Amino acid sequence: MAATDKNYRNQRILDIVFALSCVLMFLSILWMLYDDYSRPFKNVQRKFRDVETGVFENAMLDRFPDDSQMEQIKEAEQAVVDAQASVKKEKEDLKDHLNQFLDDHPQESKEYAANPARWIKARQTAKTNLQTKYQDIKSKIDSKSSFYNEEMEKAGAEKDERLRDLHVKRAEKLANEINVLTNDLNRTRTEIDVIVSDLATVQGGLNKAEEQLSKAEDSLKKLTSEFDRLAKATAQKTWKTGDWIRALPILDGFASPVKPNQITLKALPIDYGGFADVTRFDRCTTCHLAIDRGNFDKASLRRLADLDSAAVGDLQSKLDKARKFLIERHKRLEARGEDLGFDPNDLPKKITTLKLSKGEVTQYCAHPRLDVFVDPNSKHPMEKFGCTVCHAGQGSATDFTLAVHTPADMKQKEEWQKEHAWAPTHDWEFPMHSSRFVEASCLKCHHQVTDLITHGSKEEAPKLLKGYNLVKENGCFGCHEIAGIKSGREVGPDLRLEPNPPLDLLTPEERTKALSDPTTPPGTLRKVGPSLYRISEKTNEKWARSWLNNPRGFRADTKMPHFYNLDAGNKDALPKDQQDLPEAEVHSIISYLFDASKDYLDGKDDYRRLNLDKQKKLEEELKRQEPPLLDVERKKLEKDLADVKDRIKYAPVPTPIAKEMVDEFGKPVDLPAPPKAEEQAKHLTHGRQLFSEKGCLACHSHQGTLKAAPDAPAVNGQQTFAPNLSRIAAKIAPEGKDKRRWLVQWILNPNVHSPRTRMPITHMNAEDASAIADWLLSQSPEGQAVRFSEVENWNTADVPDPSLQTLANLAKIHLLKAPGFTQVDVDEVLGTADVSQAKVVSADRAKYMPADADERKLEGPPDAKKLKWYIGKKSIARLGCYACHNVPGFETAKPIGTALNDWGAKDPNRLAFEEADVWVKEHNNIVNDRSDAKAWKAKDGKQPYEEYFYQALEHHQRDGFLHQKLVAPRSYDYHRLRTWDDRLRMPQFRFSHLPKREDDDSDEDYQARIDKEEDEAREAVMTFVLGLVAEPVPLAYVNEPKGDRLHEVKGRQVIDKYNCAGCHQLSPAVIDYKITKDSNDLLEKSLKRAKGNLGGDYHFLDHNAWTGQPYLEKDRARVFGVNPRDPTDDEKRNLELEDVELKKFRLARALRINSDNGQSSADLPAGEDVFLLEKNILSQSATHGGTFANLLVDYQRKRNGARLTDDDTARSTLPPPLEREGERVQPLWLYGFLKNPTPIRPEKWMALRMPKFNMSDDEAMTLVNFFASVDRLENPGVGLTAPYLTIEQRDDKYWNAQDRKYAFEMGKAKLIEWGKTSLESLKEQLKTADDAQKRADLEKKIKLLEDALAKVEKAESVKNNEFPDLRGQIAEEHPYQVDGYRMLVKPKTKLCLECHQIGKVEVKGDAKGPPLDLTPDRLRPEWTRYWFANPNRLFTYKTIMPANFANGANNYRDEFDAPSLEQLTALRDVLMNLPKVADLPANRKTYEAAVGGK
Amino acid sequence: MRSYLAISLLTALTGGLLLAVSSSAAPSIDKPEPWGTIKGRVVWDEKKLPEPKEIAITKDVKAIANCLKDGKLYAEDWVVNKDDRGVRWVFVWLAPAPAENGDKPAALPIHPDLKEIKNKELVIDVPCCRFEPHMIGVRKGQVLVAQNSAPIAHNFKLEGGPDYPGANVLVPAGKTHKFEDLKPSPRVIVVQCAIHPWMRAWVRVFDHPYFAVTDASGKFEIKNAPAGQFRLYVWHEETGWLNKGGKDGEPITIKAGETKVLADVDVKNP
After folding, report:
1. CA distance A1077 to chain B (A)
2. What is the pLDDT of residues A470-479, one digit of tens each?
3. Which residues of chain B are within 8 Å of residue A1096 when distances are taken between CB atoms?
4. What is the DSSP pairing of strand B35-44 with strand B219-226?
5. How far apart are alpha carbons A1472 and A1414 in whole angstroms?
6. Given a cut of 50, is residue A1491 above it in pLDDT?
7. Do B170 and A1440 touch (CB under 8 A)?
């Protein structure tokens, strides 16, 4: 084509296209800019600046001074102005002062007359120089003095006269020099003094004025600083023009105020699995902007969101006033050349109003509990921990959905869908924890779990702790390994079964060996179910079958799970050929257990038999001559033999109780005969009384105690630690034997039946035990005892006997799995379809089976007994019964369940969800929301099911799987064809404890409450399991409690194990309390009451019962209280707070109360009552323990009304609270007591004795350490030493010092008394002295003393330390010990002996306190002193012990001449060394009666 | 059941009828004194007198000997005179009428003779295992001296409700403990001894001198009481309020110069 200048394309079209594309491009750039500008997080941040202004604005206006404060401010300002003026004036007058001074001192140079400042400076320089000079001379003198001393010493030691003279001369020279220097020094001192006084003359007025000014400024600041600070913050937070410009599109690319925030965590990488670990970036704070700012609490934000027009109006007028006030003040300040620190014109002119959705409030609010999380000073600072470590989710995302937020329920899900277009994300393996399970993460670093409890009772992660306790209680660890160790590193909680035999039974050598590997210490947990070794003595097969078939039918709140009749495994759901199998299995299991138990009792059980056989074989082998044994062989055989012998040693042959019953000490006793008919009623009442009083109700409950009967008040025990005993009469039923016998033996000494039981020995004699047993057995086993969902008539509840054919069919299934058995073999042995065709296991075949093969039992013609044994053993192995029970024949069996060590991190793709969701859909009524009581109902017989979990199941999420596994464990078999022994095995648990049924509960309401508690308990268990991720967190992050805290954490585990808290109150409630004006007024009322010190209290500064801690924060106090209760109407009326919700506590520790204006504070000591406003209680933990003691107060009063006149006295007969136990008792004593509790307080007075638990030495030590450590942590001021302590009263040095001190301080009368005693003693000595020199000395002494005494008698008054010779002599006679002892035992004072006995001196009538002989070994000296000073402060109830030494009472001056505090100290000292002090000749002579053998 | 106090003006002194003087008026020579006296009796109103309850003592020999020094011990909840049926140990006191506007009522005016507290110390003794006196009214400023004149130890455990500091003080034989700075309280303070649990005494603290405890014939008298409208309270440890109006008190008008004799307060076994 020819060249042409014509364009190839139409230029115009091109222009248009170009123009259009330019426009398009421009638009797309705009679009891009817009899109970037409106990224979600930017909008969030832009909105936040208004939120920020609003929050500060509100806070500022809250602090805006009211009229009276305004008046005060004005006055204070005026005071400042005045002070400034006077400073100014003083400054001006300075010249006059100086001139005046110069006139008065004509010798002074007039050089500085015109310039006072220079004069002052010159003087100050001169002063400094002189001071330096002074120091210089002083050091010279010191050095010369030391040389002088040295020379004099040398001179003294020198024998050569010449040399001595030389030294003396040198010394003299030095002395001269020192003299000169000393003169210099004095002169310098005088010069300095002159300058100081000159300066004061000239400058004094100014100094005073300046001081006044600073005082005035301070008081002004106190009035305005808070408001000023907030006003300044508001002014600064308000967006100004510059901020607007920088946030504009495009410009915001450069130093924009709107930008993503990021925390980089190199130490906590994300494990993507397979890839290298990737650094964690958390950008959560991009949107959660105020997460670490305390003043952005939810309440403030909601207030901002809910402003109505009236409130806006109010605030607006307040804001106008505030602006005006500040601007005026600013002007005034400027006039004086000062400023506010900000420009008040920057304050917003209009009140910030904005709409905040519920989600936005959450988004912008601070993290809860900043004292624990996020804050830089908290335990989990944001910079170190980030966010996703605990919350999970995708931290690097800045988009709501991509961060994988997980809703907590359907309601939230819908809100999020609406607000954030949220959708489930499957691609991120660790979606954020929903708020339901967020506590699971604590487990990553808190492996002890109990370290999440602080101050004894404050549970920082209550749900997780609940789950942990439920897992321990229900014995999940029996089947599922929860080991907490991964390749030698601690990665989670360690819940493992103790080894068999347990460590406690081993010899010390063996124990050391077992504990030698620190990376894999043996487990410590006991099996949760009772031992079944001796089941045949306890009950019968019929009961056991019915029980196994339906445990909750017998006892609604049993921990035993259901294995049979579960939804997916009930008869109808099974294929036809399996329908009879469950019954056959139940029969077989029980039959096996009873057979094995009987064999065990006869000493013929398999374990023993096999081991004895083996022992015999090994011994024969060792004797072998031909071929001769090699050394290696011999060693191996010997080792094997030793092992076998050990096994036999730790499985001794039991003595059946039919043959012999023993008491707590192992002494044989006879079963008391049943009472005669006429005594029956009395006997049974006695039994019920003992059952109620002796502590049974601390762990068990029984319906028989709920209603009052004559002489037996009602006790409404709800304890669930041990089984509810209401139907025990139906259960204890050994065949053909006496029911009583077993029960009496169990009560007398439960270790006979089961050496590992946690049931303690309650020090009962056979008669008392039989009374309890008879009462228990006399209670109706049915009828009135039946509670919710229980089977009414237990007698008829049995499982039908299976046919022999069914048994054979079931046995065949197991036999097929046996080694060497093919289908042909099985059919041959048990018949193809008809058991009568069976050809049995031949003797030949049996011979070649291993010694422990179960199939050996099938030898000979098949009968029901044999088949049942075989099936029973196989079924127990399959179902894992031995995980919770000790079962004969399963001594070495391994757990059967999936390990849970890292289940929380398990890839959901590896979980077999099967068709569980279909099962749920078909069997449940899926309800949107759990909290909707109306919708939460069964429909068409289908139980309600929360949609949250249904969806989680559908979406194949971990929590969905786990939830369904716990609700209906076998439902994963649904629509699956499985052989009998291939079916799922997990039984169905009920985790919650049965709630108390109120009288007005309808069946429906009650069921709903049961379900709700179960749901909560299940979620708690899930929280724990989901937390088991076995993630090796860097050691720096793992919480490894040390020292005292470790003891506290470990101790709590032992306390939970033995249910110490069932009886004893262990720690007070911890209440975080908001301090406002009204709450402060209320506290001040309590303070006022406490200040009326009628009982003569002391105030010990270092002890937390008298001295409180400062507030946690400015407006947050921590209160430690016990015995919470609602105040009576009368009390409320008295406080003039009739319509206010109040709680009353008795303080367990002193509470520091700041006066309203914050200027002063005072301590409200422990033991006083406080009333707290419920609305101000920010958080409250329950008191830990003491349930039984609380339960029995009322009972005791009703039973012993004459003796126990009030609740507090009744309490003193019950298990004591153990708050301050570590402070109170000596560790060694406590250890001995725990191992073997002896009576402390008189048994007649107390309702019960501390039982004896079969705890190991280690556990007892752990408890001892626990108590000492807790008190060291909580009450550091008293300086508790642990675990060892020195008792200085056991040291003669201490006594000498005390005797001397006392002798030198006693008054006239006492001095004369003791002078006479001393004189007598000298005369006594004179009589027996035979040495002439000695006699002369004594006579001289006597003379001196007599003179001194005469002088003393003549003197009008005698001062301390006068007559030192006399006093020195008296000190020799141990006056401190003698007078102290006199206070204790002198019949007239009868101070202690009214209630306590010492040695042989018994208290007639009611002895109330512990014998004082216990004191030296039991009590700590310091505590004893505080106790004597004011017992009421140290106990959690009003003790009956009076304050014997009220402050200022000085009651015993005749006996001990010193003030009360010293008297009580002396008494304490005497008690701490009682046997020795009582043994002093003077004491022995005078008060012989009291010197008792211990 | 409880019967109540009827106000009746049975007798009046002639001078008192003439002028009604407001309670706040200052005394003057021209006018009659604005002070009156009230008298009355508390009487057992049932045929059968209450049986004295003997106290069983479970202490050592010495204590028993001391406790029974003055004869057997009887509970002091009901001490009724056999001859005139007067009920001993009943508290009677005056209180200001509540102000109409709901403010705190003004304090009772106090007679010039009574302004000064003459008896600074009140003694409560335990000569033989019971408190003597069994009931004691204390005026603010008076010191309650717990005295133990017995040869055995006793303790004084004071409980006065939520607004009162408690005390549990042991007083050895022959010693005393002073309860100073007792604050007036609307509640009764119960005094007990933990060593001898049957011992009881009752203390009330007032900020004025217009209170009385009935004597062995059930009689009480409040002298020099201010004229005007007040409230009267009558309280017994077992039955509680015996006056009309219970805890709100019974309105009473005292006229100047008058000695007002109140109708007998009848008591029945609760």
Report:
1. 20
2. 999 999 999 9
3. 167, 169, 177
4. antiparallel
5. 9
6. no
7. no
Please indicate if any CB of chain B lies within 8 Å of the CB of A1406.
yes
Residue A883 is classified by DSSP as: G
Residues A556, A13: Cα–Cα separation, whole Å? 89
Q: Residue by residue, what is the 3-state secondary structure of A643-710?
A: HHHHHHHCCCCCCCCCCCEECCCCCEECCCCCCCHHHHHHHHHHHHHHHHHCCHHHCCECHHHCCCEC
Which of these ranges, A125-134, A568-577, B177-186, has the smallest mean pLDDT? A568-577
The reply to whether residue B165 touches residue A1404, judged by beta carbons under 8 angstroms, is: no
Q: Which residues of A touch B174 (CB under 8 A)?
A: 1388
Ranges A21-35, A331-345, A1109-1123: which has the least confidence = A331-345
Residues 6+ apart with CB under 8 A from A1190: A1065
Extract the tokens encoding B111: 């007679």
Structure tokens at A1494: 């211990």
What is the rounded distance in angstroms from the CA atom of residue A516 to the CA atom of residue A1334? 66
Q: Is B126 part of the contact surface with chain A (CB cutoff 8 Å)?
A: no
Contacts of B168 (CB under 8 A, 6+ apart): A1095, A1431, A1432, A1438, A1440, A1441, A1442, A1443, B155, B156, B157, B158, B194
Q: Which two tokens stand for residue A156?
A: 């003294």
Q: Are strands A485-486 and A458-459 parallel, antiparallel or unpaired?
A: unpaired
CB-CB neighbors (< 8 A) of B175 in chain A = 1449, 1451
Judge whether A1136 is closer than 8 Å to chain B, CB to CB: no
d(CA A346, CA A339): 14
Interchain pair B162, A1134: CB under 8 A: yes
CB contact under 8 A, A1406 and B177: no
What is the structure's pLDDT at B33?
61
Report which listed range, A22-36, A608-622, A1014-1028, B188-202, is most confident. A1014-1028
Report d(CA A1219, CA A1231) in Å as an integer.
17
Question: Measured in whole angstroms, how far is the alpha carbon of residue A1360 from the centre of its chain?
Answer: 51
Does residue B173 sit at the A interface (CB-CB below 8 Å)? yes
User: Which range in A290-299, A869-878, B130-139 is most confidently predicted, on average pLDDT?
Assistant: A869-878
Nearest to A1205 among B171, B186, B197 (CB): B197
pTM of the entire predicted model: 0.84
Strands (E), A154-274: 263-270
Question: Rounded to the nearest 10 degrees, how much is the dihedral formed by the CA atoms of A842, A845, A851, A857?
Answer: -30
* Nearest by CB: B165 against A1089, A1134, A1452: A1089
Partner-chain residue, chosen from A1394, A1405, A1446, that has the shortest CB–CB distance to B177? A1446
Provide Rg for chain A, Cα atoms. 43
Quick check: A700 and A717 in contact, CB under 8 A?
A: yes
Say which of B164, B169, B186 has its CB closest to residue A1446: B169
Mean pLDDT of A1241-1255: 91
Show residues of chain A in contact with B167, CB under 8 Å.
1094-1096, 1443
Task: Tell me which amino acid residue A1287 is.
Answer: I
Residue B61 contacts A where some CB pair is shorter than 8 Å: yes
DSSP summary character for residue B230:
E
| Residues A1148 and A1166 sit within 8 Å (Cβ to Cβ) | yes
Give the CA distances from residue A666 to residues A89, A600, A655, A663, B169, in Å, rounded to whole numbers and listed in that order.
Answer: 97, 21, 12, 5, 47
* Rounded distance between C-alpha atoms, residue A653 and residue A611, angstroms: 13
Q: What is the pLDDT of residues A849-875, one digit of tens each?
A: 888 899 988 888 889 999 999 999 999
Q: Three-class SS of residue B219?
A: strand
Q: Which residues of A touch B179 (CB under 8 A)?
A: 1094
Higher pLDDT, B119 or A256: B119
Q: Is the separation of the CB atoms in A367 and A373 below 8 Å?
A: yes
Q: Does B175 touch chain A (CB under 8 A)?
A: yes
Distances (CA, A) of A1021 to A430, A487, A728, A955, A1191: 19, 26, 29, 21, 29
